Give the backbone structure.
Amino acid sequence: MKNFITYLACITLFLSCTKDKGITNNCFANIVTSRNILNKQASVQLLNDEFYLIEKGTIDIKLLPCILADDFKINNLQVTISGEVKNILIKGVCCTENFVISKIEK
C-alpha cells in the first residue's frame, strides 16, 4: 500500500508539472487569419497604456499582440516578428488588428 501511495504521488506531481503547450496557439483561435507576417521588422510602441507592434514601413496600422512577454514591453524597442494577423476590428478602433505572435526577437 505504501508503494502505491508513493507511485500515485509521483504521477500526480509529474502531471501537475507538465508545461502548458500552446497558450499562444489558442489566442483568437476562432477568428480567421487575414494575413501572415514572417520575419518582419517592427517597433514596440506604448500608446494609451497598451503595447502595440508597428510594422516597419507602415504608419497607421497597429498590431495588438495577444500575449507580449515583459522582456519586450519596452517603448520604441526594435524587434523582428512573425505571426498571424487576425481578421477583426478591435473595439471599433481604426487601424488596429489582433496579432498572434509565433516568434519575436530583439
